[in-house]
């Protein structure tokens, strides 16, 4: 166990033959402020009048999607628009890079008055391929991943294996004196600071730990394996230290067979090692799950007032509250609690496996997320 766990975010993907089955497996963790609440919200597809505006000009039609929420973060808006407008990983890459080139990136990255922002890396995944996108201001570089396993963390990882890039990337690097224009162009070397802060050095350990875990399971990655990686404490991928903890955990199964639905597992509670992954399947009429949605505060929301985040509101949803109370029980009798929760998760995974193998019709599992949230809350009570 490392003495000072790095604060970071981690994304993982396994594409056949890295996966045991003919599925693409995606996993994601975030390290966020301890008291920040994560929601799971379903946004249906929508049509928009020409010229209508969000924070940027809205397209006439957007795609439905399911996502975790942290409130009012610029990178969340970028992800949201990529999900709404892109029907593939490559299309989402085009959406996001176009937005970066036009609007840049930044903004407050947590719900607090103290300024805190950073630039971002993304892992975009669909049924057939993945793209790693790394950014520096409006500049960007991307790498296509067609097979095997890959992970990203809070650092630049793309070297010379570049699939596509901002048209001015190399000329800017040369003009700034970061690259002499001779020899191989290595993005991570050129754009990484000469004296990186300590937290970035610590994140390198976490990135290497994630890479090692993926490589250990290369050829046999499943949703269960991905969940175990997201729960790994020794690597720091799952951490709980100081004012931060790991949260926003998610695992997706994307079958290569387009006749099969994709399944997305969310915890909606902090610390995946003490949470249950619950499956969501898109359907024409998904059952609303208000117990994982935060209350609304309208114009009184401190995120909507200027200056922003000068006060705080209670954004805890029902599951979050119940989970917080249950954590105290876990401290006194953790084994019994973990066993029961893992049984619930294992049952869901078994039903999903049966559906993917054709034993259970997919329509019968459309309300599984609602049922799992309801069962988990009842258990905590």
TrEMBL record:
Lineage, broadest ranks: Eukaryota, Metazoa, Chordata, Craniata, Vertebrata
InterPro entries: Peptidase_C69
Protein name: Secernin-2
Name of a matching Pfam family: Peptidase_C69
Single GO molecular function: dipeptidase activity
Family: Belongs to the peptidase C69 family. Secernin subfamily.
Domain of life, source organism: Eukaryota
Organism whose genome encodes this protein: Neolamprologus brichardi
Gene3D superfamilies, sorted: Penicillin V Acylase, Chain A
Gene Ontology biological-process annotations: proteolysis
């Amino acid at each position: 166990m490392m003495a000072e766990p790095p604060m970071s975010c981690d994304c993982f993907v396994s594409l056949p033959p890295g996966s045991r089955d003919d599925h693409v497996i995606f996993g994601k963790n975030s390290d966020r402020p301890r008291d920040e609440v994560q929601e799971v919200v379903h946004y249906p597809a929508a049509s928009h009048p020409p010229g209508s505006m969000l924070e940027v000009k809205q397209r006439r039609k957007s795609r439905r999607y399911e996502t975790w929420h942290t409130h009012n973060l610029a990178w969340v808006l970028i992800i949201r628009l990529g999900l709404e407008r892109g029907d593939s990983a490559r299309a989402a890459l085009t959406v996001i890079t176009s937005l970066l080139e036009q609007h840049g990136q930044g903004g407050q990255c947590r719900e607090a008055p103290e300024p805190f922002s950073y630039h971002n890396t993304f892992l975009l995944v669909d049924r057939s391929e993945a793209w790693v996108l790394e950014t520096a201001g409006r500049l960007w570089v991307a790498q296509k991943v067609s097979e095997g396993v890959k992970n990203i963390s809070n650092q630049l990882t793309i070297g010379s294996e570049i699939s596509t890039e901002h048209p001015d990337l190399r000329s800017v690097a040369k003009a700034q004196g970061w690259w002499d224009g001779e020899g191989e162009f290595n993005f991570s070397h050129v754009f990484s600071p000469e004296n990186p802060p300590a937290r970035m050095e610590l994140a390198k350990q976490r990135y290497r730990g994630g890479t090692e875990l993926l490589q250990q399971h290369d050829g046999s990655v499943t949703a269960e394996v991905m969940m175990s990686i997201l729960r790994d404490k020794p690597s720091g991928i799952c951490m709980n230290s100081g004012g931060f903890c790991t949260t926003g955990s998610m695992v997706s199964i994307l079958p290569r067979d387009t006749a099969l639905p994709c399944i997305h597992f969310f915890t909606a509670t902090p610390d995946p090692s003490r949470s249950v992954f619950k499956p969501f399947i898109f359907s024409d009429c998904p059952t609303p799950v208000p117990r994982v949605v935060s209350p609304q505060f309208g114009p009184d929301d401190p995120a909507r007032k200027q200056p922003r985040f000068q006060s705080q509101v209670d954004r805890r949803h029902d599951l979050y509250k119940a989970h917080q109370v249950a954590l105290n029980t876990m401290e006194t009798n953790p084994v019994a609690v973990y066993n029961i929760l893992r049984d619930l998760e294992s049952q869901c995974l078994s039903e999903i496996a049966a559906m993917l193998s054709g034993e259970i019709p997919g329509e019968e599992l459309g309300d599984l997320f609602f049922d799992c949230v309801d069962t988990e809350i009842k258990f905590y009570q």
